[in-house]
Amino acid sequence: MLGRKGLLLDRTGETGKSLEGLKLSGWDFQVTTSLERARKVLGNGETLVGLVVFDAVDSWPLRDLESMLSRHEVEWIAVLPRALLDDPTLAPVLRRNFYDFHTLPLDRERMLITLGHAHGKASLCPGVPRHEEGDGRFGMTGRSAKMLHLYRQIEKIITVDAPVLIGGESGTGKELVARAVHGHSARSQGPFIEMNCGAIPANLIHSELFGYERGAFTGAHQRTIGHIEAANGGVLFLDEIGDLPLDLQASLLRFLQEKTIVRVGGTERLRMNVRVIAATHVDLKRAVEQGRFREDLYYRLNVLHLVVPALRERRDDIELLAQMIYGKNQDQRSPQVRGFSAEAYQAMTAYDWPGNVRELINRVQHAMIMTENRFISAADLGLPAVGAHETTPTLDEVRTTVEREMIESSLKRYQNNVSATARQLGVSRVTLYRMIDRLKIVL
């Protein structure tokens, strides 16, 4: 019972005096007289139960109050005169946002029971996200064996300055890993410049990468630095490196070997201090075998290699990731939403996630906005409930299936000769015709 923290929102502070005796029962209420102060208290994440005192309908700006109540995982109890329960303005607010209500004057024993039930519900509900420190590293979420292995690899890579090649399926978070390597390395104060090699037209990639001088081509009205030069002193992240055209692969290889560039239309050779991190969802080794990727560039980029696991390979992390996404999008959820149902967690863990973490983010954000439930369901996520597809056929369905298979097999054996089929099955021709018609078998 000890150490249970509560928040009391009381405009006058009078009700707070009545609650001082609850400290002896293990409750410690922080009394606030304004919504602004209450928001700051709730920001610490320690409060599970809150009391809101209404001495009049206009005690609080109801829209601002509802906004605050809906943004925190707290069970709220209204404290008010009995007459206010029938107010047409206040009653809907109470129904939408409050676990229970308590009428004035305060009944200490009844209030303790109500508080205990509210605290138990807030603490034990499986849908309430409890994302905590220790759930990940390097700005990433996950504590599965696969992710722990990835963290150990990153620890080694951030201490050196060699090129890194990051592999993994689309949507696994390869850019997040690249930013983690940059952000925890000696280059963390330098720039992080990203270039998606598959998103830029082939005829523009060279000038985007190396920059160009004024007059180098039509439309080049002024000198423009490229991505490599912009990343000087930091990291150049080349996403989807497998889509880089072969002629540009030779130019990139030359830069990696010489650490210098020449802008398009220029003659001056510029020395660059850039660490290159590349990422791809394709098998570059196979691309080399097929002649689509230079072998020498592959070995230049693949000095250090990281593989980001697919979400289906780290199912233990799915619940943590869902909670993290939920927490980061609190301001976009429907007011009544309080978390995930147990069914939703089961469905997410069972699903294979072909789109990986990107798909999980999409489904959770959509469900948080569109659901009409208090706790997000499997259906809200667009996922089948675990076991929902496992239905047992009825006896009539089994009998119909067996009859159809036997008749079709016999008809095929006797080349659709109904008389021979009837004799073989031990029924009359009339009976067989009736069965063929009922089962909609085409002769």
The CATH topology name of the largest domain reads Rossmann fold
Which strand-content bin applies to the residues?
Answer: 5-15%
Number of domains: 4
Q: What is the CATH homologous superfamily assignment of the largest domain?
A: P-loop containing nucleotide triphosphate hydrolases
Into which percent range does the helicity of residues fall?
Answer: 40-55%
- Tally of separate helices: 18
Given as residue ranges, the uncertain stretches (5+ residues, pLDDT < 50) are: none
User: Given the helix and strand composition, which structural class is it?
Assistant: alpha/beta
Q: Which overall shape is indicated by the principal axes computed on the Cα atoms?
A: flat
Main sheet properties: 5 strands, parallel
- Report how far apart the termini are: 77 Å
Radius of gyration: 33 Å
Strand order of the largest sheet: 2-1-3-4-5
Mean of all residue-level pLDDT scores: 87
Query: What is the name of the CATH architecture of the largest domain?
Result: 3-Layer(aba) Sandwich
| Total beta strands | 14
Give the C-level CATH assignment of the largest domain. Answer: Alpha Beta
